[in-house]
């Protein structure tokens, strides 16, 4: 992969900053105004389904731990990508991955005849994480509970496998197919951008 340079590597990029702020504001509103039911992504067959939920679901979270983990992951991977890509490309990528996550989740739910709802930025963030692993595959990352350096391509790859396994077997309340939809969308975007914009792609 090509080397990259950007100024002030510890800076807080604009789009990333506002995405985190919006998520925090929405989470506070969820806790105080009881609006979660309007924001989550219902199955297409559910009478509560509204098309706008394809967007709103990615800004709502189920718990403090949920939003904390997601925003930490978004900051970890998104900060570098926005500095490299610029704000416009990063925002477009993030939103497209979030929509891709929602669409994939809805399709799988419809085909399986299940009726679980989805909420959270995880799908969009999985797309960002895949883009990071695609662009900087050998960057070493550390897990909080496992202080051993792991290359991005192996860590993100393992998480994708985890989502595949538990998406098929079930047994928890995590929307694994939304994660996979975001990851798949992010990977496809990377392939398209890399093929069509080789001279300027990092």
Q: Can you summarize this structure?
A:
The protein has 202 residues and is mostly helical. It has helices spanning 14-33, 36-39, 53-56, 64-85, 87-112, 122-135, 152-169, 176-196, and strands at residues 140-143, 146-151. A two-stranded antiparallel sheet has the order 1-2.
Describe the structure.
It contains eight helices and two strands; from the N terminus they run ααααααββαα. The longest helix is centred in the middle third of the chain and has 26 residues, at about 85-110. It has helices spanning about 15-35, 35-40, 55, 65-85, 85-110, 120-135, 150-170, 175-195, and strands spanning about 140-145, 145-150. A two-stranded antiparallel sheet has the order 1-2. It is about 65% helix and about 5% strand. It is mainly α and about 200 residues long. The chain starts with 13 loop residues before the first helix and ends in a 6-residue tail after the last helix. The protein has a single domain, classed as Rhomboid-like fold.
Can you give keywords for this protein?
globular; two-stranded antiparallel ribbon; 202 residues; 64% helix; Rhomboid-like fold; 8 helices; disordered N terminus; single chain; mainly alpha
What average pLDDT do the residues reach? 90
CATH superfamily: Rhomboid-like
How is the quaternary structure best described?
single chain
Helix fraction by DSSP (H/I, runs of at least 4)? 55-70%
Question: Low-confidence stretches at least 5 residues in length (pLDDT < 50)?
Answer: 1-7
Characterize the biggest β-sheet: 2 strands, antiparallel
């Amino acid at each position: 992969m090509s080397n990259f340079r950007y100024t002030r590597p510890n800076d807080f990029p604009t789009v990333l900053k506002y995405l985190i702020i919006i998520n925090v504001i929405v989470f506070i509103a969820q806790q105080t105004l009881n609006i979660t039911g309007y924001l989550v992504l219902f199955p297409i067959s559910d009478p509560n389904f509204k098309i706008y939920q394809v967007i709103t679901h990615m800004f709502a979270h189920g718990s403090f731990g949920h939003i904390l983990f997601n925003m930490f992951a978004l900051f970890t991977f998104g900060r570098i990508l926005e500095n490299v890509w610029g704000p416009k490309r990063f925002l477009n990528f993030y939103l497209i991955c979030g929509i891709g996550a929602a669409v994939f989740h809805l399709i799988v739910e419809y085909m399986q005849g299940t009726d679980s709802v989805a909420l959270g930025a995880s799908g969009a963030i999985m797309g960002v994480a895949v883009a990071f692993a695609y662009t900087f595959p050998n960057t070493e990352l550390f897990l909080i509970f496992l202080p051993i350096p792991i290359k991005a391509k192996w860590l993100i790859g393992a998480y994708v496998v985890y989502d595949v396994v538990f998406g098929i077997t079930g047994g928890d309340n995590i929307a694994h197919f939304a994660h996979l939809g975001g990851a798949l969308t992010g990977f496809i975007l990377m392939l398209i951008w890399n093929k069509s914009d080789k001279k300027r792609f990092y």
